[in-house]
Amino acid sequence: MTRTARPADAPRPETGIVIETEGEAEILPGTPAEEEAIDLPAPPVSAEAPEPPEAQSLAMQPPEAPRAT
């Protein structure tokens, strides 16, 4: 699920958990679910982007043979 960020000037929803005890209300700190995580778009990947030199050199090496102990 993708979530979008709210504009900075948008009104903020009331945060916290409200517990009523004998006619009094106590607000405990909390975070709205919509602010828990924001998925950022992935950077564009070019099909022509070269691999880093380390990846190329590792790809050219044959896998290591098991060592006898």
Describe this structure in words.
There is one protein chain. This protein is an alpha+beta fold. The chain is 12% helix and 14% strand. The protein contains one helix and two strands. It has one helix at residues 53-60, and strands spanning 17-21, 24-28. It has a two-stranded antiparallel ribbon. A hairpin with a 2-residue loop joins strand 1 and strand 2. The longest helix has 8 residues, at 53-60. The radius of gyration is 26 Å and the shape is elongated.
Topology:
Elements (H helix, E strand, L loop, with lengths): L16 E5 L2 E5 L24 H8 L9
Kindly report the oligomeric state of this protein: single chain
The dominant shape is: elongated
Q: Estimate what percentage of residues fall within beta strands.
A: 5-15%
Number of helices, where a helix is a run of at least 4 consecutive DSSP H or I residues: 1
Radius of gyration: 26 Å
Cross-sheet strand order for the largest sheet: 1-2
Mean pLDDT: 61
pLDDT under 50 segments (min length 5)? none
Along the chain, the helix and strand elements come as EEH
Count of beta strands: 2
Biggest sheet features: 2 strands, antiparallel
Q: What gap, in angstroms, lies between the N and C termini?
A: 50 Å
Category from helices, strands and their pairing: alpha+beta
Helix content: 10-25%
Quick tags:
69 residues, two-stranded antiparallel ribbon, alpha+beta, elongated
Give a quick summary of the entry.
The protein is an alpha+beta fold and 69 residues long. Helices cover 12% and strands 14% of the residues. A two-stranded antiparallel sheet has the order 1-2.
